[in-house]
Amino acid sequence: MTSQSPKQIPGGVHVVGVAGVGMSAVAQALVDQGCRVTGSDRYLDSGDRLPVLNQLEAAGVQLVPQDGSGVGDETGAVVISTAIEPGNPDLLAAEQRWRTDGCRLPVDR
Predict the structure, then answer these.
(1) CATH code (residue 35)
(2) How far apart are CA 61 and CA 55, in angstroms?
(3) How many CB atoms lie within 10 A of CB 105?
C-alpha cells in the first residue's frame, strides 16, 4: 500500500473490472483526486458498452482492452476487483510486472 496521494502515483493507476459498482467508484474517486486512471473490463472487450463505461470515459478514465496492455512499465499501481478470475491477462501482467521488479504486488485480492 502506498502512502502517496493518488495524484502523486507516477504513471497513474490501472483499474481492472472498472465497470463494476465498486471499481467504477474507485476509478471515479481517483480521477476526482487528480490521478491518471486507465481501466479495463470484460464488458468493454465483448462490445457491451454499458452506460457506466461511457460515464467513466467522459470523466477522464482511459478505457483499454483487458489484454494486459493497461499494465506497463509506467503503471504506478493496479486495483483489481475480487470478481476477476485468476487467469485474467491484466492480473497476470500486474503479477509479472511487480515480480520482475522484486516488489510485492501492491494489491489485495
Answers:
(1) 3.40.50.720
(2) 9
(3) 16
The answer to whether 79 touches 25, Cβ cutoff 8 Å, is no
1 within a domain of the structure (yes/no): no
User: Which stretches of the chain are DSSP H helices?
Assistant: 21-32, 42-45, 51-59, 89-100
Q: Is the dihedral of CA 5, 10, 12, 13 positive or negative?
A: negative
**What pTM does this model have?**
0.84
Total tally of structural domains belonging to the chain: 1
**Domain span at 80:** 6-100
Q: What is the mean pLDDT of residues 13-34?
A: 95
Contact, 40 vs 16, CB < 8 A? yes
